[in-house]
Amino acid sequence: ANYGPNPICKGCLSCSKDNGCIRCQHKLFFFLRREGMRQYGECLHSCPSGYYGLRTPDMNRCSRCRIENCDSCFSKDFCTKCKSGFYSHRGRCFRGCPAGFAALEELMECVEGCEVGQWSEWGTCSRNNKTCGFKWGLETRTRQIVKKPAKDTIQCPTIAESRRCKMALRHCPGGKWRRPAKTKDKKKKKKNLMERAQKQHSIFLATDKTSQ
């Protein structure tokens, strides 16, 4: 049936004045559009956003995507394009990519990211390649890249980091700067000078008495 210039019946095999298309021509998809309380059928070459084309022997239909935040889908369980602000990942839509995957902003997709191993233990505290002679130094820990990213534009996380640390030995054994030993020698030298001065003074007094 054809109801003249009414565009609602375009591509229909059968059409109703009130409900639009009831059956569509071959290769076209039947889409049931709703506007408020009213609904009517249309025959389309491709399904609108949020729907996918389901071909059946009886009639091709537009079925709704069942994936949340999906703009267009391949099937009810696989999204091909997500709504604005969402990343596509394995047929689903996410606000942020799952762990182990990185966001490819230009395509709004999640791709395999850079995978790194566990941190090593903190290394020896050192400074200028020395483990003594200073009060403070730096200690470093590292981790290895287990899997390189799928895209060269995706950066890997930090694989080395350092932090300030206090050295166990501030003074190196056998070093030139040994304040405790130097202070002890100074006191001993001063004591010897005092003893020598007292001895010389005693000799002088004894000599003076003999001469009198």
From TrEMBL:
Organism from which the protein derives: Cardinalis cardinalis (Northern cardinal)
Domain R-spondin Fu-CRD residue range list: 9-110
GO MF annotations, alphabetized: heparin binding
Protein name (database record): R-spondin-2
Lineage per the UniProt record: Eukaryota, Metazoa, Chordata, Craniata, Vertebrata
Record bears the keyword Disulfide bond: yes
Span of domain Spondin-like TSP1: 114-167
Entry keyword set: Developmental protein, Disulfide bond, Glycoprotein, Heparin-binding, Secreted, Sensory transduction, Signal, Wnt signaling pathway
A Pfam family of this chain: TSP1_spondin
Record-linked SMART domains: FU, TSP1
Subcellular locations according to the entry: Secreted
